[in-house]
Amino acid sequence: MPERGDRPRGRLGRDQIIGAAVELADEIGLEPLTIRRLADHLGVRPMSLYHYVQNKDDIIDGMVGRVFAEVERPDPTSPWKDEVRARARSLRGALRRHPWAIPIMESRRTPGAEILDHHEAMLATWLSTGYSMAVVAHGLAVVDAFVYGFALQEAALPLGESGGDLTEASEQVVMPLSPEQYPSLVRFTTEHVMQPGYDFGDSFEVGLGYVLDGVERAGEAAAGA
After folding, report:
1. Does any domain span residue 25?
2. CA 138 to centroid of chain Cα atoms
3. Taking phi first (over 0 means left), then psi (-120 to 50 degrees means alpha), and beta for anything else, what does residue 78 get?
């Protein structure tokens, strides 16, 4: 049986390296991900990776591209609001699977085809609205800010096993508080957060609707001005 690093090069490739990096980051996060640790995960010597990738930044570019490939690409020939909503839902899903990607999705200086093609489709969909360039720019920025911000909050909150339940955290943090000192916090928690069926994630669809409706109103108002 071959020792680590003795595997034939044909069994290793860029796709395999990027896939393993995504898998490892899902387990340990992005910061602890090193070339050596990735090589150990793959069962090869660190230097063997440099036949296929330049450095860690090159790997991260590929990782972000892999996440973008999981996100539903909008169709500019279909109704823009439906397409942007579907893409937002899909992006949120990808970020929940890969929370390490949230702060770096829009940071790459050498984006690959997956990233460029996705952004091209997204911009084409927004431009199909016929709204002014200013409204398109604001809409694109605000929708993405909402999705990334919501995903970041979801990743940070002490949610229960259901993925949206804050009951346990509320019992530990809020319920011991004095209602006289923190009346609004206690009331909101008891009358809303701790009620049966509460799910923090429900606010995503509602908030996304607020954002898209607002962009639509702004676009129509600008066209009628």
Report:
1. yes
2. 20
3. beta
